[in-house]
Amino acid sequence: APTPAMDEVTFKSDTVLSDVHLYTPNHRHLMVRLNGMGQPVFLSQFKLLWNQDSQTDSGAEGGRHGMGPAEQTSASGPGSTRPPLGSGCSSDATSQEGVGARLDEDGDLDVERRPRAASDAEPAEPPRDKVHPTILTQEEDDPLADEARESSPQDVIRIEHTMATPLEDVGKQVWRGALLLADYILFQRDLFQGRTVLELGAGTGLASIIAATVARTVYCTDVGADLLAMCQRNIALNGHLTAAGGGVVKVKELDWLKDDLCTDPEVPFSWSQEDVSDLYSHTTILLAAEVFYDDDLTDALFRTLSRLVHKLENACTAILSVEKRLNFTLRHLDVTCEAYDHFRSWLQRLERLAGGRLRFAVEPVEASFPQLLVYERIQQLELWKIFVEPV
């Protein structure tokens, strides 16, 4: 069978697509390579709104500033922006209703529709560009790099990611929960200043990179050599951000299904004894974003979290980002949030723990802090804090 063209993204029954890119045209995302799994890898820019006072009143109710990456250019060409999904934009007929809508003789709204004939030589509107990823070779210059230099390198985070993967590879995509967590880090810079941070299930490494703009050391962890190599590449792409704050990001493998850290020097992204010692001696903040979509993974994450905090020498805070996803289930014949409910049950279980040497206190974080990255902050996005301290 012939090999499909590189610009033909194939969707199968088990394909999962991140909402960050679902409504964003592809032609500003640069396809730079195929990863070790043969999946197309794209390069996107995310705009950092460091100094925009207008963002100070964003939040779950009103913080919808975009559909995804900073390149929210519509398929009709540069310079035109798309409104966020559900942002309240009206159709022409609806917007004219207040100034005298056209009604037919029965009182129904009369909307003119003109079918486009194949023989139309001059269509009324300019044709829409066909949306395709831009494909680069390793030798070609990167137009996004030129754009970043023209604006300000400190205002852009560049992330390599996939767009559509099977469920087991969703860590290679960018998810809104990581952007919400990154927003919180930027808002609470003093909390992270000079700290040692551990991110569990870091995916593309976006939150770890943002944390390294203020933290001393960030351990960016996940599992799988292909995914960790993507993390390493993204850290290199954003050295201009981490260097400014003096932070160091170390990409390491941390498998939630194993009790111990891998210290075999022959294994890629293994831990040195010095890193293990530093992790347990200095870590005070743990992060996790969008890793609570599967009950088994949620169980593994919380068991790993509990195992780690019992080994840390200092009291610590875990900051967790989750999206409350609604799904219709045949078992209940109703719309439920089973993955989210399972996550909440773990929070309650931690609070009820007694008799151990650690105390767990859980509290939600109000998502009313400023939005400093361009994405759609929906009401279903939540942040939770777990404070862990000796009894």
UniProtKB/TrEMBL annotation:
Predominant place of localization: nucleus
Feature: compositional bias, Basic and acidic residues: 110-132, 146-155
Subcellular location: Nucleus
Catalytic activities: L-lysyl-[protein] + 3 S-adenosyl-L-methionine = N(6),N(6),N(6)-trimethyl-L-lysyl-[protein] + 3 S-adenosyl-L-homocysteine + 3 H(+)
Record flagged with keyword Glycosyltransferase: no
GO CC terms: nucleus
Keyword Acetylation: yes
Record's keyword terms, sorted: Acetylation, Methyltransferase, Nucleus, Phosphoprotein, S-adenosyl-L-methionine, Transferase
Annotated region (Disordered), positions in chain: 54-155
Transmembrane segments: none
GO MF annotations, alphabetized: protein methyltransferase activity
Bias-annotated ranges (Polar residues): 88-97
GO annotation, biological process: methylation
CDD domains: AdoMet_MTases (cd02440)
Self-association and partners: Interacts with members of the heat shock protein 90 and 70 families; these proteins probably are methylation substrates.
Role description: Protein N-lysine methyltransferase.
Name the UniProt record assigns to this protein: Methyltransferase-like protein 22
